[in-house]
Amino acid sequence: MEFEERVAAVAAKVRQQQGMIETEEATKNAFVMPFISTVLGYDVFDPHEVVPEFTADVGVKKGEKVDYAVVQDGEVRIIIECKKAGAELSVENASQLYRYFAVTNARIAALTNGVVYRFYTDLEAPNRMDSTPFLVLDLREIDEALLPELRKLTKDAFDLDSVINAAEKLKYIGEIKRMFNAQFNDPEEDWVRFFTTRVYNGQFTRRVREQFTPFVREASAQFLNDQVNSRLKSALNTSFTVTEVEEPSVEEGEEEPPTSDDGITTTLEELEGYRIVKAIACGEVPPDRIAYRDSKSYFAVLLDDNNRKTIARLHFNGRRRKYLGTFDEDKRETRHLLGSLEDIYTHAELIRKTVRGHMA
């Protein structure tokens, strides 16, 4: 299994089970240990590689423990502090990490609730853990740009120097991206002013600020949606070539071979529509869990090839108009008229919500 697939497998497990995990111990067993073993590649049952409840006396404090120490070549390389799933992650809640970072050889510290992993190092002062992480991995929304750096922390590809060299860039890019996210969701006055003064010729008064704040927020959301849809369309811009095959002629007196045609024809449009729905659904589950079944009435896209877990239906059979069928919590179908196959993208959130509902 490739590294990216291992990350996706653990992420799918987290999405499916997060609502069932209520304690820190359950979080360790269900999420953190699989992450250490499956993603990072260390044997969690070998104390030469992973030491649970790692103890290193610090000053007058004796017997304090950090949840895991990852060891390589006899040296502690990574220390990990765990909180229960859903708990807020802040360095104020990770005093052990600060202390152990200073007295061990570890240059990497991780704070996690099993869903989000915050990785720290000592860019600001030697042997003193930074207050800001250089890498934040959210398994609910994986940033694929971070995976090459995460891979450098794995057992087979551990490259501390490369990680440290890239950490400063990752740290500040990550901070800027989080600032973008915050401004998109709740724009500050300076952010609103920046855009307003470039499209509005009047004075930036309080009334103008209040008028343009929702405009900036909505424009940001639409811009992000446009970018996502554009990438999905590019990825799925697959052309199909149909080759006409000349049927052998039937000589006079010969019978034409019998056919087992059940009247169901899967069209290229249905397959293209399926690929679009599948690409959207893959944001929630691995692609191999998405399947389809065609019938005379509609083309169904299913989770786990289970007709009780219908994700969407394509109503393309013998119709001038084409419809996408989506489902609510009560499994009631709503049909949406499609001007083109690309219109499926406008219903992406409904499709993702249905997938999440089937996994609940």
TrEMBL record:
Keywords: Endonuclease, Hydrolase, Nuclease. Residues 26-120 form the Type I restriction enzyme R protein N-terminal domain. InterPro entries: HSDR_N, UCP035009_HsdR_All3000-type. One of its GO terms (molecular function) is endonuclease activity. It comes from the Bacteria. It comes from Nocardiopsis alba. This is Restriction endonuclease. Residues 245-259 have a biased composition (Acidic residues).
